[in-house]
Specification:
The complex is a heterodimer. Chain A is mainly β. Helix content of chain A is 0%, strand content 51%. Classes of the chains: A mainly beta, B mainly beta. Chains A and B meet through strand 5 and strand 10 of A and strand 4, strand 5 and strand 9 of B.
């Protein structure tokens, strides 16, 4: 089974702090994604990566950056956290190989609160 | 820009009923469509994936259909159980095979 893990389930940070959210997948997937989920707004894509050191902006990249130094790990960085970044953050991965058809598999989520 | 709509937003049914969840999308040029389940405070669990060339997929009591030309998909749940209570999300993938666009979800409650 595909396993996508996220470094924290719950995180509380203060305004202005630099925040790192880590995601690791164990299935050698090429693609990795970061989403945020908010009530009434649904899931929105922040950034995705289709290869090591490659990144593409999603729908709402402002205020975020990402890093992918190794294939299995994709980090989301909040350079200076703000209260409007309080949200549930979800990581996902997918493979373009064979019959996987790019099916996305999600991690358990990190609920971030910025005070 | 792709827009995905799910109706109804919430549904409450007695145990044992068969039910249908609806998903519609505005741009029929899709790569695939996925149905997910999300329990409160948790991540998403992939239920079914339908390729753009397919009409339906089945897994146990779940059956998902896709009518790409009309921009619609349905998720059929047979003999519903209290354990099926969750939010169900559909998402369509763009033709480049990269980005998913999600619907707002249907919150299902199955009463014992």
């Amino acid at each position: 089974d595909v396993k996508v893990t996220q470094s924290s389930r719950y995180l509380v940070k203060r305004t202005g702090e630099k925040v790192f959210l880590e995601c690791v997948q164990d299935m050698d997937h090429e693609n990795m994604f970061w989403y945020r989920q908010d009530p009434g707004l649904g899931l929105r894509l922040i950034y995705f990566s289709y290869d090591v050191k490659m990144k593409e902006k999603g729908d709402i990249p402002e205020g975020y950056s990402v890093s992918r130094e190794k294939k299995e790990r994709f980090s989301l960085i909040l350079e200076s956290a703000s209260t409007n970044q309080t949200s549930m953050y979800l990581c996902a991965s997918s493979s373009i190989a064979g019959l996987s058809y790019n099916e996305q598999f999600f991690g358990p989520g990190t609920r971030l609160t910025v005070l | 820009k792709q827009e995905v709509t799910q109706i109804p937003a919430a549904l409450s049914v007695p145990e044992g009923e068969n039910l249908v969840l609806n998903c519609s999308f505005t741009d029929s040029a899709i790569y695939n469509l996925q149905w997910f389940r999300q329990d409160p405070g948790k991540g998403l669990t992939s239920l079914l994936l339908i390729q753009s060339s397919q009409r339906e997929q089945t897994s146990g009591r779940l059956n998902a259909s896709l009518d790409k030309s009309s921009g619609r998909s349905t998720l059929y749940i047979a003999a519903s159980q209290p354990g099926d209570s969750a939010t169900y999300l559909c998402a369509v993938m763009d033709n480049a095979g990269n980005m998913l666009t999600f619907g707002g979800g249907t919150r299902l409650m199955v009463k014992p």
